[in-house]
Amino acid sequence: MSRVVLVTGGARSGKSRFAEGLAEKYAPLRGYLATGEAGDTEMTQRIARHQGRRGPEWQTVEEPLRVAEAIRAHEARFNVMLLDCVTLWISNLLFRCPGGAAEALAQVESFAGGFGSLTTPLVIVTNEVGMGIVPEHPISRSFRDLAGEANEIIAAAADEVYVTISGLPLRLK
């Protein structure tokens, strides 16, 4: 069994940079499992910023839906893997799975249930989205609730959990 670390926080809180720093404590080659897709200009720029921070000691695997399978398929190639991020993954699942939020949550439970069989350390990035106002639209509330439940499941199964606020990490577990 390998270590699993969850890093959470709000938008632009420094969580990805902190998670990358945790992963960089391991020797190269490092795997970066990207769940985001460049669907518009802003997302393309966001992805480019993340890629620009990583050097040749990182190899990117892009997988918007089948995260657990991608980790199992690639983990032996790397000394550490970083999943960025759960929030985009569950958003992808929410809009593409016929079973909606229930199916997405089942995939998260299966993913977290597999942590014990990992042989490579895994650092996971997610967002805290439920600390603000209640969203007006039902799909937004569904996403907020799904993100909260997914984070809770993953945090319970992780060995370590950090939250970043204003670029400062705080260890929770």
Question: Can you describe this structure?
Answer:
By secondary structure, the chain is an alpha/beta fold. The chain has a single domain, classed as Rossmann fold (3-Layer(aba) Sandwich), CATH 3.40.50. It contains six helices and seven strands; from the N terminus they run βαβαβαβααβαββ. It has a seven-stranded mixed β-sheet, with helices on both faces. Strand 6 and strand 7 (168-171) form a beta hairpin. Helix 4 (86-96) packs across helix 6 (138-157). It is globular. InterPro entries: CobU/CobP. Keywords: ATP-binding, Cobalamin biosynthesis, GTP-binding, Kinase, Nucleotide-binding, Nucleotidyltransferase, Transferase. Pfam families: CobU. This is Bifunctional adenosylcobinamide kinase/adenosylcobinamide-phosphate guanylyltransferase.
Key features?
ATP-binding; cobalamin biosynthesis; alpha/beta; EC 2.7.7.62; 173 residues; Rossmann fold; 7-stranded mixed sheet; cobinamide phosphate guanylyltransferase activity; CobU/CobP
Draw up the topology in text.
Layout: E1 4-9, H1 15-23, E2 30-34, H2 41-53, E3 58-62, H3 67-74, E4 80-84, H4 86-96, H5 100-113, E5 122-125, H6 138-157, E6 160-165, E7 168-171
Parallel strand pairs: 1-5, 1-6, 2-3, 2-4, 4-5
Antiparallel strand pairs: 6-7
Helix pairs in contact: 4-5, 4-6, 5-6
Q: Give helix and strand order, one letter per element, not per position.
A: EHEHEHEHHEHEE
Distance between the termini: 18 Å
| Percent of residues in β-strands | 15-25%
CATH fold descriptor: Rossmann fold
Q: Give the name of the CATH architecture.
A: 3-Layer(aba) Sandwich
Low-confidence stretches: none
Average residue pLDDT: 92
Number of helices: 6
Order of strands in the sheet with most strands: 3-2-4-5-1-6-7
- What shape does the CA trace take? globular
CATH class identity: Alpha Beta
| Rg, nearest Å | 15 Å
Keywords: ATP-binding, Cobalamin biosynthesis, GTP-binding, Kinase, Nucleotide-binding, Nucleotidyltransferase, Transferase
EC number: 2.7.1.156, 2.7.7.62
Pfam family, one: CobU
GO molecular function: adenosylcobinamide kinase activity; cobinamide phosphate guanylyltransferase activity
